[in-house]
Specification:
Helix content of chain B: 40-55%
Number of helices of chain A: 3
Number of strands of chain A: 4
Largest sheet of chain B: 7 strands, mixed
Strand order of the largest sheet of chain A: 1-2-4-3
Structural class of chain A: alpha+beta
CATH superfamily of the largest domain in chain B: Type I PLP-dependent aspartate aminotransferase-like (Major domain)
CATH topology of the largest domain in chain B: Aspartate Aminotransferase, domain 2
Shape of chain A: globular
Largest sheet of chain A: 4 strands, mixed
Order of helices and strands of chain B: EHHEHEHEHEHEHEEHEEHEHHHEH
Number of helices of chain B: 13
Oligomer: heterodimer
Distance between the termini of chain A: 16 Å
CATH architecture of the largest domain in chain B: 3-Layer(aba) Sandwich
CATH class of the largest domain in chain B: Alpha Beta
Strand content of chain A: 25-35%
Strand order of the largest sheet of chain B: 2-8-7-6-5-3-4
Order of helices and strands of chain A: HEHEHEE
Structural class of chain B: alpha/beta
Helix content of chain A: 25-40%
């Protein structure tokens, strides 16, 4: 995972190509919707996904590892997670 | 392969070899016969004040008694729901929200159904904390582990009667004793086990039990939460106050009547079916272990549902095995519907410490009331060839022989 040296600059540092709102949804739906979104993206493009499922951090880390995509960043505000995922293949 | 059209007089015979009763159970024809007039005739709304309404109300209450009797809940109140998922949600959220002044902590096993787990995760977002009880390599919850997990602010413990993915039967009676001693309400998701294993809610001190109509060979779309009298729940579905105010919405009478009859049949006949199940199950399991290399049982061999066989295969995917068996007229499953949607490793198999390559190779056979001995023969004939063929084309297939 790439971790930016300056966390404050992270949201601006990456151009977001696609946005996915999974707030209020639980496993398995955030993973299923992420998979569908990434499938439609071109290699190199970045997905921003929002989720408030407490399990989604572990789920997304496991998903990118298994599928060979890249988790650029995870940030958390309150109960909301924001994931930046780059399609690698 | 299957009985096919030659047995059209006995409609319950499946056209294939059907070993996914855990996924879906057919309707018992006797249940269907009782349900029919409720689907076809003039049946009142149980809340109506006219005579048809009164008759409907009587049928509803009779079903309640039948369902309660099945779990030994002589005085338990039965709340009919749309299924086990709703009943599990109602148990977790209904108790947690009602009891929040006393505490905001829940204790739940790590191998619960996703309808328990996600209800807990929803509460976590709103300030509750959850202790996920670890299980051993067979999937068993140790009552001592539970004892240590209960805190002064714990308001609910939930551990299933039996796990439908690995067939492990939990020590419900001992777990209930711990909860009673600590005076914490105990919920049991009974979907995977009731009818095949004993549960005596009243005597054991189980406060809440979830049941599913379909898993008793009743209709789908109906379930129940059996609640010990005096235990208060916050309703999750609001409206006209049906089901004693706990679950609004006009009752699904045909399905509820069906579930009542299914529960009654299960209470009378369930125990008598067990020996037959065990015989078939053990023959299937022994045969699989003898005929196929690199296969092992998941769950417990001793504390096991009588109708359940679950195995892990090295080097091939359970999904491929299930699809190949399907081509040969055999219906089985990989064990977890949720994991099949995400293709992520099943939380149950992870919790019992399966290696990741084993988790992918999970295959599950669940027997039922109409399983014939010939169906076991068919699996034992086809399964080894399926595995051999898939291993031959699998990139890591050669490793199997070294096991």
């Amino acid at each position: 995972m790439t971790v930016s040296a300056d966390p404050d600059s992270e949201p601006q540092a990456v151009a977001i190509d696609r946005y996915l709102d999974c707030l209020g949804l639980f496993c398995p739906i955030p993973i299923v919707k992420t998979r569908e979104a990434v499938k439609q993206m071109a290699v190199g493009e970045v997905l921003e996904m929002l989720s408030d499922d407490p399990a989604s951090e572990a789920d997304m880390k496991s998903w990118v590892q298994r599928t060979g995509n890249e988790l650029l960043d995870v940030s958390k505000a309150g109960v909301k997670y924001r994931f930046l995922i780059r399609k690698v293949r | 392969m299957g009985a096919g059209g030659s047995d059209e007089n006995i409609s319950i015979l499946s056209p294939q070899v059907y070993l996914d009763y855990g996924g879906f159970g057919p309707l018992d024809p006797r249940v269907h016969a009782v349900m029919r007039p409720y689907l076809e005739g003039w049946v009142g709304n149980p809340s109506a004040i006219h005579s048809l309404g009164a008759e409907a109300k009587e049928s509803l209450e009779a079903s309640r008694k039948k369902v309660a009797r099945l779990i030994g809940g002589l005085s338990h109140g039965v709340v009919f729901t749309s299924g086990a998922t709703e009943a599990n949600n109602l148990a977790v959220r209904g108790i947690a929200v009602r009891a929040q002044d006393r505490g905001r902590h829940l204790v739940v096993s790590a191998i619960e159904h996703i309808s328990i787990i996600n209800a807990c995760r929803d509460l976590m977002k709103h300030g509750w904390s959850v202790t996920w009880l670890a299980v051993d390599s067979e999937g068993l919850v140790d009552p001592e582990t539970l004892r240590h997990a209960i805190r002064s602010d714990t308001v609910l413990v939930s551990v299933m009667a039996a796990n439908p993915e690995i067939g492990t039967v939990e020590p419900t009676r001992a777990l209930a004793a711990v909860c009673r001693e600590r005076q914490v309400p105990f919920h049991v998701d009974g979907v995977g086990g009731i009818g095949r294993i004993q549960l005596d809610a009243e005597a054991w001190g189980v406060d809440l039990v979830t049941l599913s109509g379909n898993d008793l060979y009743g209709p789908p779309g109906v379930g129940a939460l059996c609640v010990r009298p005096g235990l208060k729940l916050v309703p999750q579905i609001l409206g006209g106050g049906q089901e004693d105010g706990v679950r609004s919405g006009a009752e699904n009478l045909p399905a509820i009547v069906g579930m009542g009859v299914a529960a009654e049949i299960m209470r009378r006949e369930g125990a008598g079916e067990i020996q037959h199940f065990i015989q078939l199950r053990d023959r299937l399991l022994r045969g699989l272990l003898e005929r196929v290399q690199g296969v092992r049982l998941t769950g417990s061999s001793q504390h096991r549902l009588p109708h359940h066989v679950s195995v892990c295969l090295r080097d091939i995917k359970g999904e491929s095995v299930v699809l190949d068996l399907d081509l040969h007229g055999i219906v089985a499953s990989t064990g977890s519907a949720c994991a099949s949607k995400t293709r992520e490793p099943s939380h149950v198999l992870r919790a019992i410490g399966c290696l990741s390559e084993e988790i992918e190779g999970s295959v599950c056979f669940t027997l039922g009331r109409w399983t014939r001995s010939s169906e076991i023969d068919a699996v034992l004939e086809v399964f080894p060839r399926t595995v051999e063929r898939l291993r031959a084309i699998s990139p890591s297939g050669s490793k199997a022989s070294s096991l």
